[in-house]
Amino acid sequence: MSTTAPRQASAQTVKVAAGTTAIDALREAGVELNGPSGAVVVREVGTGTLRDLAWAPEADAEVEAVPASSEDGLAVLRHSTAHVLAQAVQDLFPGTLLGIGPPIENGFYYDFAPAQPFTPDDLVAIEKKMSEIIKAGQRFARREITDADARIELDAERFKLELIDLKGSASGEEATEVGTGGLTMYDNLDAKSGHLVWTDLCRGPHLPTTRRIPAFKLMRSAAAYWRGNEKNPQLQRIYGTAWASRDDLKAYLVQLEEAAKRDHRKLGAELDLFSFPDELGSGLPVFHPKGGVLRRVLEDYVRQRHVDEGFDSVSTPHISKDGLFHTSGHLPYYADSMFPPMELENSEYRLKAMNCPMHNLIYRSRGRSYRELPLRLFELGNVYRYEKSGVVHGLTRVRGLTMDDSHSYCMPEQAPAEIKHLLNFCLGLFRDFGLDDFYLELSTRDDSKPDKFIGTDEQWAAATRILEDVATESGLDLVPDPGGAAYYGPKISVQAKDAIGRTWQMSTIQYDFNQPAGFELEYQAADGSRQQPVMIHSAKFGSIERFVGVLIEHYAGAFPAWLSPVQVTGIPVTDEQVPYLVDVAKRLRSKGIRVEIDDSDDRMQKKIRTAQRQKVPFMLIAGEADASSNAVSFRYRDGEQRNGIPIEQAVTEIADFVTRRVNESPTSAHFES
Questions:
Q1: Does the structure show a pLDDT above 50 at 4?
Q2: CB neighbour list of residue 189: distance below 8 Å, 6 or more residues apart
Q3: Rg for the chain (alpha carbons), in Å?
Q4: Residue 9 predicted with pLDDT over 50
Q5: What integer is the mean pLDDT of 115-125?
Q6: Element (H, E) at 569
Q7: Short-list 303, 270, 300, CA closest to 288
C-alpha cells in the first residue's frame, strides 16, 4: 500500500559544460531551483544516473532537472532528511552508533544503537534539533574515500565497518550506502565557515543544502534487527516522513488519520470478521461467521468469473515432496519464503508456497495438442509462505493465504492475446468491486544480478516487450519497476487506488518461459512437431485474505449491500413485533438476502445504534402501526428513514438493490421515484 504514485515530469534538457557545475548550468538555463517544482538533483541523459547539483562533469554532459515533487526528487529529499535525523541523534545522544538510513515509501528511517531505547519525549527533542539543522542551511558535500581511509574514519562505527565489507554486493536499502563503485562520504558543512559539522557513509545524491527540506515529521520509533536478521543485534529505528511542501505533508497526515479509522485490523475486530489467535501463530487468521460470509461471496464470485472467462477448476494438495520445487526453480530462488522441510518416509516434504508446479503436473499428465491451447487452469489454492515477523501485517501480509491462482498454457504466438484477455479480466473484476482508478507497473529483471534470474537475454527481452506492448495498448499509465521481476520472467501488476487515494498492488500477470522447460511441457503442433508452450501466471485478487483487507479499508467497513455479511437487520419496537419481523425475514431469505432480527432486551434506539456500528446497509423497523398495516420503516446508514413501506415493496426494493450489485451505500434517494 502507498499513496498516489508520483510521476516523473518531462524535463528540459540542459547542457553542462566540462568543469561547470550542474547548478550553474541550470541557473543559466533559467530552471527553477526552489519550491516543490525546483530542481534538487539532475539526471544524466543516456545513463539515467542521478547527480548532485554541485556535480561538475569532466566532459560536456546533458542533464535533466529532477524536481523535488517527483518520485526521484522525493527519494532524495527523504534520504537527506534521514541524514539530518542521524546528525540530530548523535548531537543529542553522543556515542549512539549508526546503522543505515534509506528513503522508503512515503518517508525514511534511520537505525541506531543508542544507550537506551528512544522515548516519545526523545522524538520531540530530536525533531526540534532537526529543525535547527535545517534552518542552519548546512551544505551537503560529496567526498570520495578509499576503503582503508573509510575504515580509519569510521573506526568507532562498527555497523558502518560491516557495510564497507559488503561493497559491491549490497542490495536493497543497504545499497544506499555502499553499492557498485568506490565509497563516498557525504559531509554536512557549516553554511558560513564551510567547516565539517557531521558526516556519513553514503552513495547519495543529496539536496544542495538542508534548507531545501521544507516539511518533515518524525512518526515513531521501533525495534529492528540489524540488516533484518533476527540473529543480529537489535537496534532502534526512527521513522519519519518528508514532503516537497507543507501542504503535501498536511495532506499526508490527514490521509494517515483517515487510514487509521479504516484500519482493517481494528474494523475486523469491531465487525466480528476475523481474528489472529496466538495459539495458531503469527500471520495465520481465522474467519468468524460474518467474515466467512464475506469470503464465500468473494470466492463464489471469482470462481464463476473464471468459468465465464474459459478456465477449468482444479485442486491440488497442500504439501509435496520438495523435489517438485527444485524442478520449478522455487527452492533455489525462493527458499527464504518457504517453510522448512518436514521428514516423512525418508523424504522431505514442503508446504506449498505456490500452485504453479502442481498445475504443471496436471498439464503434463497426458499429451496435449495445439487445438487445446490456450489451456486455462484455475484454483482457489491454500498456500503457505514464511513471511518474516516484521512484515506480517493483518490480512494484507499473512503466512497462510488463499490464492485465486490461474495458469494459461499457450503457443508463443497466442501469448499477447492471452495477456490482454487476462488484463481485461482483472480490470473488470476490480470495477465490479468499486475499484476503478488504476495504473500498471512493469517489473523487469535486474541485469546487474544475473544469478537471481533464469533464462537468456533474448527470452527476457521478448517477454518484456510483449507485456509492455499489452500494457501500453490498455491506455493506462505504465510505471517501470526495474529488478522487481520474478526469477522466471517479467510481470505486469495492476495498481489500484482506494477511496482515500492510497495505492495497492492487486493482480499480477507473469510471463514464464522457464517452468515449461524445467517440466518438459510440450504440445503437438499443427505440423506434428513437439513444441514448448508459454505459461502465463495470473492472480486476480492476489489472495482472498489480502483482498478482504483492502475492501475493508476501501469501504471503511461499510460494504456495498451485495457484499455485506448482514444485509438487513430487523428491529422491533417491542417484543410483540418480533414474530412479525421473523415472517418478513423469511420473505427476504427466500430472495437470498442475509437478514438478522435483533430480539435482544435493548431499547429500540440502542438496537439502531448497534446496527449502525455494525454498518448494516438496511434496517427495517416495525412498531405496532407497521405490523397492523403490513408495512415497515426503512432506515439507512446515513440516518435517513422512510416510513410505512409495504412489505412486498420493501422486499422487492432490497432484493433488486442487492442483485444489481450497487457499490455504494443505499440511501432514500436510490428508491425515490
A1: no
A2: 138, 139, 140, 141, 195, 196, 197
A3: 29
A4: no
A5: 95
A6: strand 568-572
A7: 270
**Over the stretch 294-340, which tens digit does the pLDDT of each residue have?**
999 999 999 999 999 999 999 999 999 999 999 998 888 888 889 99
Rounded mean pLDDT, 213-230: 92
Q: For residue 416, which of 477, 457, 464, 453 has the smallest C-alpha distance?
A: 464
CA 473 to chain centre: 24
Could you say which DSSP state residue 647 is in?
A: H
Instruction: Give pLDDT, residue 175.
Output: 63
Q: In the sheet that 641-646 helps form, which strands lie side by side, from edge to edge?
A: 595-597, 568-572, 618-622, 631-636, 641-646
Question: What is the average pLDDT across 530-538?
Answer: 96
488-496 average pLDDT score: 92
User: Residue 553 is placed in which grid cell?
Assistant: 479499508
CA distance 482 to 48: 13
Q: Which of the residue ranges 355-369, 420-434, 448-462 would you say has the lowest mean pLDDT? A: 448-462
Local structure of 105: helix, strand or coil:
coil
State the pLDDT at residue 180: 66
Contact 604, 573 (CB under 8 A): yes
CB-based contact 110:100 (threshold 8 Å): yes
Q: Are 66 and 74 in contact (CB under 8 A)?
A: no
Distances in Å between the Cα of 659 and the Cα atoms of 157, 289, 355, 560 are 65, 22, 33, 11
134 and 197 Cβ atoms separated by less than 8 Å = no
Q: Do 599 and 662 form a contact (C-beta atoms < 8 A)?
A: no
Residue in the block written with cell 498445475: 359
Q: How far is CA 479 from CA 362, 441, 476, in A?
A: 35, 5, 10
Q: Is the distance from CB of 397 to CB of 504 less than 8 angstroms? A: no
Alpha carbon distance 559, 565 (integer Å): 9
C-alpha dihedral sign at 416, 418, 421, 423: negative
Cα 487 to Cα 228, 384, 492, 549, 593, distances in angstroms: 22, 19, 14, 28, 46
DSSP secondary structure, 274-319, as one string: EE--TTT-TT--EE-HHHHHHHHHHHHHHHHHHHHTTPEE----SE
Exposed (0-12), middle (13-18) or buried (19+): which is 538, by Cβ within 10 Å? buried
Which pLDDT tens digit goes with each residue over 369-379?
999 999 999 99
**DSSP assignment letter at 226:** G
3-state secondary structure of 598: coil
Task: Please give the helix or strand (H or E) that residue 443 lies within, else none.
Answer: strand 438-444
- Alpha-carbon distance values, 542 to 430, 491, 509, 548 (Å): 12, 14, 10, 11
For the chain, helix (H) and strand (E) counts, in that order, are: 19, 32
